């Protein structure tokens, strides 16, 4: 009996370690994608990045089936810490992106997605529960380039700006109809216990996972301060 219990315990510990490794790999991939995209001359306009409250990176998203609408991606989100999103970038929160029809990836290639949450309302909504883009939060394809001068009125008013990269091509993309939510199971695997999304971005909680250092460091380096209008930041995380 003791041997049987010990075997079960070892198997359980091994399973937990594998699950954590999987999330660590995904988090490392998100950091690498962010690093590469921030190095693109015609990438995310700096002024938009500086006004973002949170950034979500979904590496290597694939369609569920060729020709059928609907995809599923997992990645990570980091937000500026503090009640009003004015501090350094937070420890990563694992996220899931589901549904929607995002067009065919050429030759079945995986696509990286980057989402900018442009105001506290969008950030608060995502931290609380599942959000449907275009319904619970306005979303638009993000402009690219060294500045946001090419942005349309729709993109400037959007709460969430979305970008994609596939086969080296970086562009704004519409993800309306997709749902975005914190991935509770993945966060528990990563941090070893249940995590409150709101607490994670408000204050130092369990600390950033080792593999999340690249993602957080890149954003702290490229956008250390929140340049949003101070009046738009007066709604604290609830």
Report on this model:
Helix content is 34%, strand content 24%. The chain is α+β, with helices and mostly antiparallel strands and 238 residues long. Strands 1, 2, 3, 4, 5, 6, 7, 8 and 9 form a nine-stranded mixed beta sheet that branches. Helix 1 crosses helix 5 and helix 1 runs parallel beside helix 7. The longest helix is centred in the N-terminal third of the chain and has 37 residues, at 2-38. The chain is globular, with a radius of gyration of 18 Å.
List keywords for this structure.
238 residues; alpha+beta; nine-stranded mixed beta sheet
Alpha-carbon distance between the two ends: 49 Å
Low-confidence stretches: 4-16
How many domains? The number is 1
Q: Quick one: overall form? A: globular
> What is the average of the pLDDT values?
81
| Category by helix and strand content | alpha+beta
Give helix % range. 25-40%
Number of helices: 7
| Number of E-state strands | 9
- Topology pattern, helix = H, strand = E: HHEEEEHEEHEEEHHH
**How much of the residues is beta strand, in percent?**
15-25%
Rg calculated over all Cα atoms: 18 Å
| Main sheet record | 9 strands, mixed
